[in-house]
Amino acid sequence: MSSDEDKITRISIEPEKQSLLDHHTEKHFTAGEIVRDIIIGVSDGLTVPFALAAGLSGANASSSIVLTAGIAEVAAGAISMGLGGYLAAKSEEDHYAREMKREQEEIVAVPETEAAEVAEILAQYGIEPHEYSPVVNALRKNPQAWLDFMMRFELGLEKPDPKRALQSAFTIAIAYVLGGFIPLLPYMLIPRAIDAVVASVVITLFALFIFGYAKGHFTGSKPLRSAFETAFIGAIASAAAFCLAKVVQH
């Protein structure tokens, strides 16, 4: 909420109720979109280069080749994932703008129908006609508030942050790079890939476990279960790539 909107909200609230709000802080987690982007970037960044490195190690490639291919994959993957996040956020923004324009036109063209929809929405919350009628009339006198109400409660759409697309792109890309370099670290230090892959497996599975635990904590699911699930998926991906490389090689 902007400072202007906050000021308007404060003016319309009774002083005693405003006092209660000022002394009450709700502890809700509100950074869901950023966490989602980090989860997408880190999970793919840990898993995809990990599987690629394991596959190349299974094909008896040298550590330098694995490292070169891994870095190339991390760079390409970060760009691709970041672009995907940008396009997804822009699509959401465009969809909101189209629906808002359509709803705005309906409020002008068929105000009685739209007012009836407001009444229907409020009735779903158990509000009686004599209780919601003043609310409907108040919204009709404030077209912008009416439009915001319909967008949120009829269509279930929240206004996207205009900075969301770029923020999503950079968050996913950076998270992918940070996650992607973890399974490649052993190949920078150990010349033989077949030896480096063992260290890579240990380090990456540990990182996946920690990441899965943090993901579970922030998303509200069971942290330990999330940790084991994330590590298990990474282990399956790397084992499949390693075994496939061995099969193809023979």
From TrEMBL:
Reaction equations catalysed: Fe(2+)(in) = Fe(2+)(out)
Main localization of the protein described in the UniProt heading: membrane
GO biological process: intracellular manganese ion homeostasis
Membrane topology classification: Multi-pass membrane protein
Localization of this protein: Vacuole membrane
InterPro entries: Ccc1_fam
Keywords from the named record: Ion transport, Iron, Iron transport, Membrane, Metal-binding, Transmembrane, Transmembrane helix, Transport, Vacuole
Membrane-spanning residues: 169-190, 196-214, 226-248
Cellular component GO terms, alphabetical: vacuolar membrane
Keyword Transcription regulation annotated: no
Entry's Gene Ontology molecular function annotations: iron ion sequestering activity; iron ion transmembrane transporter activity; manganese ion transmembrane transporter activity; metal ion binding
Family: Belongs to the CCC1 family.
Oligomer status and interactors: Homodimer.
Protein's job: Vacuolar Fe(2+) uptake transporter.
Entry remark concerning the domains of this protein: The cytoplasmic metal binding domain (MBD) is located between transmembrane 2 (TM2) and transmembrane 3 (TM3).
Name by which UniProt lists this protein: Vacuolar iron transporter
Organism in which the protein naturally occurs: Arabidopsis thaliana x Arabidopsis arenosa
